[in-house]
TrEMBL record:
Residues spanning the membrane: 105-122, 142-162, 217-239, 254-274, 286-308, 314-335
Native source organism of the sequence: Ruixingdingia sedimenti
Keywords: Membrane, Transmembrane, Transmembrane helix
Protein name: Tricarballylate utilization 4Fe-4S protein TcuB
Keyword Transmembrane helix (UniProt): yes
Length: 357
């Protein structure tokens, strides 16, 4: 366990018990109706509520017991700390998660720079022999590097999810659980405060859907880019159609549209985060969260720049940098903010199960 886990759990338990007695915020988001099922909160219950929380902050701006009241409630920060701790405890190996979240910007920049230098050196010593980007780095070389860098981190995520599932009381998954959870995730309903008027993330006591829309742009942009990579893989191996691909092909259509959405969503999220109150979140990991957003923007922006520079002398440097950002993303996946998507979806599935008990 993390050295401060008992203290985090105890403080979150104290605040949740006060909230459960008050119930003024009962209709705000999924956390509060879920909270009312319990009279006492085990550690697993608190971890579940923490990952169900989307940090919309509406409860804090509506609460009569925030400081300077003697109860000193700060539910968004308390649950953010427990949520962060749950990722750090469960994902394997745990020490790497804490290191990235607390020093993420430095770790990310150093890793991207090192990988970029590696690919530049690789191109200088053993250039590829194919067409397009494969003229700079051979296809088999890319597969040999990226396949383990993508698959092995997923093992760390899977271990973390199994541990989290056990701690929070997850059961055998039914189709209804998946339908409800994926429907909520697709709409990002909880980022609208649960009441459809928006959340209070960056505007204090005013509602706004800006954060939900920015998250949607980032999420759907990322999924489109993943679809572009998947389409290119299928075309290469099943249709014997290697890159480069024309502008009308699925890899290009999905990749360009996804890249634009990722850049817009990432810049928007970063601006909102700069305007939000850091005391209503896990302050110690602010840098790691911002580093993750910056990395996603760099991936998309370098990919778009690389496409625009096709046929010019800038391709080797841009390709090395783009590969550096993508490989850094894969390697850091279990310990970066990316892991929140896996845990949040698990929390939504478990919540669907708990509703039916």
């Amino acid at each position: 366990m993390s050295f401060d886990t008992p203290a985090l759990m105890q403080e979150a338990r104290r605040q949740l018990e006060i909230c459960n007695a008050c119930r003024y915020c009962e209709g705000f988001c999924s956390v509060f109706p879920a909270m009312t099922r319990n009279k006492a909160f085990a550690d697993g219950d608190i971890s579940h509520l923490a990952n169900l929380c989307h940090n919309c902050r509406g409860c804090s701006y509506s609460c009569q017991y925030i400081p300077p009241h003697e109860f000193a409630l700060n539910i968004p920060a308390a649950l953010a700390e427990v949520r962060q701790d749950s990722w750090e405890r469960h994902v394997w190996p745990a020490p790497l998660a804490r290191a990235f979240h607390e020093r993420g910007l430095v770790i990310m920049l150093v890793m991207v720079a090192a990988i970029t230098a590696f690919f530049l050196a690789l191109h200088g010593r053993a250039p590829g022999e194919g067409e397009g980007f494969y003229a700079f780095v051979a296809h088999n070389t890319l597969v040999a590097i990226f396949a383990p860098a993508f698959l092995l981190p997923l093992v760390g995520v899977a271990i973390g999810l199994v541990r989290y599932w056990r701690e929070t009381g997850g059961r055998r998954i039914a189709l209804a659980d998946l339908a409800g959870a994926f429907g909520s995730a697709a709409r990002m309903r909880n980022l609208s405060g649960g009441h459809g008027e928006g959340c209070n993330f960056e505007k204090g006591d005013r509602y706004s859907d800006a954060r939900r829309h920015a998250h949607q742009a980032m999420m759907y942009g990322f999924l489109l880019c993943f679809a572009a990579t998947s389409a290119g893989t299928l075309m290469h191996y099943l249709l014997d159609w290697p890159a480069p691909y024309p502008i009308w092909s699925p890899p290009k259509v999905f990749g360009i549209s996804g890249g634009v959405l990722m850049i817009l969503g990432g810049v928007w999220l970063a601006l909102l985060k700069l305007r939000a109150d850091p005391d209503l979140g896990a302050r110690r990991v602010w840098g790691g969260e911002m580093a993750f957003v910056v990395l996603l923007v760099l991936i998309a922006a370098s990919g778009m720049a690389l496409y625009a520079a096709t046929g010019t002398g800038a391709v080797p440097a841009l390709l090395a940098f783009h590969l550096g950002t993508v490989l850094a993303f894969f390697v850091l996946l279990p310990w970066s903010k990316m892991v929140h998507g896996f845990f949040r979806l698990s929390a939504l599935i478990i919540e669907e199960q708990k509703k039916r008990r």
